[in-house]
Structures are given as C-alpha cells and as structure tokens.
Known about the structure:
By secondary structure, the chain is an all-alpha fold. Helix content is about 50%, strand content about 5%.
Amino acid sequence: MSYFTRPLSVLAAIGLAACASSSSEPMPAPSAAPAQAAAAAAAPAVGGGEAIISATQVTTGRNQFRSMCTECHTAAEFGDATFQLKWSRRSVGDLYEFILTAMPDDAPGILTPQQAVDLTAFMLEMNGFPTGSATLDPDQAELDAITLARIRSE
C-alpha cells in the first residue's frame, strides 16, 4: 500500500462505523421535490421521438417565418450544423425565450408569446422533432424542461 492509502482506508472505516452506529431509528422520508423538479417531471420528456409539436403549429410557424423573418434569415440556417452546435446543449425554453425577447433584430420583443412558440415549433421540426397531435404552449417552465440535445448533428 502507498503511504496515503492505509490512513485513508482507516478513516473511511471509522466514518462508516460512526454512521452505522449513530441511530437505530429509521431515516425520515425525503421532503417534497423542489418545484422545478416537479415541473420537469410533468413536462414532456423528449428523447425517444415523442411528438411535442403539431403539423398545424409548424405550418403556422413556417408562415410567420416567411412573413417576418426572411428579410434577415434563411430557413436553412436553423437546421445547419452551426445552429445545432450552438443550441444542442440548451433547452427549448432557451430558444423560445431568445426568439421572444431578441427577435426580430430591428424590433426586439414585438412578437407575442404564441408567435414565438410557433416559430420555435417550426425550428424544432427543421431539426428532426416529429409532429403529432401535441402542441407547444408558451409556458417557460415547461419549455425549459425540454432538451435540445437530440438536434446534434451526427
């Protein structure tokens, strides 16, 4: 054994013995989970291809994009590797909040929450999120609980 291994082993054994003999009463039940954890549990877990956007919402977002965003952007830039690298470690809520507060560039903050969430749905669809009957709501806590990790380019 090295010079430090034996003393560390002794300290670990003493610590375990102290923990084991401290009380014979059962441990109390864990307290309620924080509100954020509860919101995350209630939000849709995206990872197995669950549909969290509808085709109707994507179409609405696409139409809004065409009428409001094409002066500065092309749709292709929201499905390319640069976009995926920038956003894949963030949440749908981050993307939604950015669109809501920073776009359009010449008049930030004029979009309604519904417009911003529809544009977000359009961008999700461009990055492989499947469509179904569910729709995204402009609820920041719910959107924050949905990861964008699945958009990573392979």
